[in-house]
Amino acid sequence: MDKQEVKQKVLSIKADKEKFLSPYAATEQICLRRQEYDYNFFRRGYIRDCETIINLAQYNRYGGKTQVFSLHSNNDISTRALHVGLVSRIARTIGDALNLNVGLIEAIALAHDLGHAPFGHNGEKWLDKASSEKGYRFYHHIQGARYLDNIVHANISLPVIDGVLCHNGEQLLQVYRPNDCATRSFEQLQDKLELAYSGRLKQEQLMPATVEGCLVRLCDVIAYLGKDRQDAHRLGLVNESDYCDSGIGVLNHDIIRNVTEDVICNSYGKDCIAMSDRVYSALLSAMKENYSKIYLTGSTGISKQEAGNMQTAFKQAYEFVYNDAKEGQNILNKIYYPYIYANKACVEEYKMENAAYPERVAADFIASMCDKYFISFYNKYIGELQLPIKDYFD
User: Fold this and answer.
1) DSSP letter string over 165-231?
2) Residue pLDDT, tens place only, 186-234
3) CA dihedral sign of residues 17, 23, 26, 29
4) Do the Cβ atoms of 144 and 56 come closer than 8 Å?
5) What is the DSSP annotation of 77-106?
6) How many Cβ atoms sit within 10 Å of the Cβ of residue 315?
7) CA of 52: how far to CAs of 59, 107, 341, in Å?
8) If residue 273 lies in a helix (H) or strand (E), which one and from where to where?
């Protein structure tokens, strides 16, 4: 076959595959973008988003951001990069079984934590506390959507940005179904972002507009639940034998297998992502155990004094960047703006759009940092942040 025949064959195969998707799956028809995009024959729809996302600066920085256990020098402990990969793999496995659009699933999964600050959820809390003094609230899922649509201007499709915006993995539901509050236009997206910046966006307004987005939201929980336990055990902070088996297993691989099977069996042929009563109850119990044994007990390995020092450092760093953004942008012009995006026109657009919002720029810059970069930045421009990085055998 000549080149034109190959192109037509590939396009025909892709069209046939879409015909056999679930009637509730997202199609290319809803792949809405801010600007028209001229697809080639082999990289269409959400696959274009996948390839754009993995070439973004923030995606590259996943590897330098810790998931839960910060300030540990241990290459066996999960980074944000590993977590994102796990979410993508679990969600695509389930999505393939449910005949959903795995291209959209992959794109949402790869992008869902782009808005995370350094030092995991602790960093998110510290940054929110610092920015809220300027009337600006910081949430990583809101920041992820803001990064894709308002910072890099990478023309990512609305279903992907919506999936990132609504992926909140802290609230577990038995059934995830797109509702009337779902985001179906870029105008609605911007309205929600503006509400979130001042803390006025309600939780019920954050249900994904696609079943694929609903699936990624649940898989975020499936991916971190057992893996955080595994990491805590490897660091000698919590033993795996300390957990109760509420019906889905205790170990990471058991949790993934058991919940995956249940989700497939209870979601097949439906317009939602659902779990059985038994597995939903078991997941809730397992999440509560993680909070009591890991997240809320200091079992992440950071002492109260270290956490206090970090919170102060975040406040000082935020004030420093805020003042620079407000008064002259000397530092930002050197070490932030040139590294936002390869397209300089998009960077200039970001600068103009946010000229009157130094509180947003300060949060954007700090959220873009890796753990070690934050410490280096602080030590160079603000003071001396001496934190013991715990070794493998501490």
Assistant:
1) HT--TTS--SEE---TTS--SHHHHHHHHHHHHTT---GGG---SSHHHHHHHHHHHHHHHHHHHHH
2) 999 999 999 999 999 998 899 999 999 999 999 999 999 999 999 999 8
3) positive
4) no
5) SPBHHHHHHHHHHHHHHHHHHTT--HHHHH
6) 16
7) 10, 9, 11
8) strand 273-274
In this prediction, residue 388 carries a pLDDT of 59
DSSP codes of every residue in 347-383: HHHHHHHTTT-HHHHHHHHHHT--HHHHHHHHHHHT-
Q: What is the mean pLDDT of residues 289-309?
A: 84
Amino acid 298 reads: G
Query: Are the C-beta atoms of 163 and 178 separated by less than 8 Å?
Result: no
Is the distance from CB of 301 to CB of 71 less than 8 angstroms? Answer: yes
φ/ψ (deg, to 5) at 380:
-80, -40
For the chain, the residue count is 394
- CA gap 256, 279 in Å, rounded: 12
For residue 300, what are its two tokens? 């992440």
Q: 374 near 307, Cβ under 8 Å?
A: no
Q: Give pTM, 2 decimals.
A: 0.95
**Among 317, 240, 306, 246, which Cα is nearest to 280's?**
246
Q: What is the largest CA-CA distance in the chain?
A: 69
Report the DSSP beta bridge partners of residue 175.
274
CA distance 200 to 239: 40
Cβ(117)–Cβ(140) under 8 Å? yes
Q: Which residue reads 């998110």 in tokens?
A: 124
In this prediction, residue 103 has a pLDDT band, given cuts at 50, 70 and 90, of: very high
What is the rounded distance in angstroms from the CA atom of residue 109 to the CA atom of residue 50?
Answer: 9
DSSP label at residue 292: I
19 Cβ contact list (under 8 Å, min separation 6): none
Distance CA 30, CA 43 (A): 16
Token pair belonging to 153: 């201007």
